[in-house]
Here is the input.
Amino acid sequence: MSIPRAPLPDGTLPWTRSCFVCGEANPHGLRLKSRHEGGLVVLRYAPRAADRGWREIVHGGIATTLLDEVMTWSAILHTRRACVAAELSVRLSHPITVGQPLRIVGEILLGNARLMQARGRIYDAQDQILCESTGKFVPMDAAVASACAEDFVTNAEAIPVQAIFEAGTAGNTANARE
Here is the structure.
């Protein structure tokens, strides 16, 4: 069952200060920006040498982290509430190498207000699927979501946090700092 929502415009999704994937102040993070494109969540990335697990092959945990990011954002956009992963299943089909341009795509397969099933895929430059994941996502507890909401950065480059989250479902997004 799908939750009817006003469509969001395509554009850059908001980011935080501390997140490993998008956090602008995380010294060890990737500092990436996800996008909403035609109802999908899309992230582009070329893995760094620091992301390798064995020689020039990217660690599977990095691939899983990227998939978790796009699937979590898919759940957030579907429910308009802060969400987290409850379960992930990942299939690593082909090696991902350092420096390889990647397109990571997330979407909701099924969902309602309490549980969403999402799919994420990592594609190479030739649109070959290198890695695929499915996951189950649940909304955060209101108190936790409120604390997390304070970590969002307000930036004219991004879709406004207030446009994504329903009033009261991600905490007080008015506290998002410049």
